[in-house]
Amino acid sequence: MSVADLLLAYTLAATLLTLTPGLDTVLILRTATVEGGRKAFHAALGIDAGCFIWGALVAFGLGALLAVSEFAYTLLKWCGAAYLCWLGIQLLLRPRQQFSVNAASAGSENNWFLRGILGNVLNPKMGVFYVSFLPQFIPAGHSPLIWTFLLVAIHVLIGTLWSVTLIISSRYASGILRKPAVVKWMDRTTGCLFLLFAAKLALSRR
Known about the structure:
The chain is 79% helix and 0% strand. By secondary structure, the chain is mainly alpha-helical. The chain has one domain. InterPro entries: LeuE-type (IPR001123).
């Protein structure tokens, strides 16, 4: 395959991966509708940063450890599952009762960025995916380091566009989503989804 064909095939595969509903989609939608678009974008930037962290690990060969070490994979898997459980329980026990797009300090905004990073970095399947997937699209004779970051950048760009689409779409439903009962329902539903993702991650195998 030519370089152009490789990039086209990778872009298509990365787009399908991004559009597949998962934890990132849940996090962005919930944050956009309950916390506001600004915080949701911070969470999206955190997810993007997590992708670049995984890309760096893969580029420098450290990410391959997850592919060969059962202990490393299991440790990260349980850390990720525990973190998702903590998020889910928080949303179930302390759901918000009103929608607010302005009521946030810098600290809480940064917290959503951090949550985006942690949700991504503590998911070992992202690491295994990058380790097994990215090398297939690096042309022979080209720098693996440069191409790894290029492919991650394409994935991040697609993910950012999708996140922005979700954030903008959530605004059209803001009237309904401002109702306290709806906000509480969304938080608790998201909490249940996070717990399901945690269980799925904990029971997953490579």
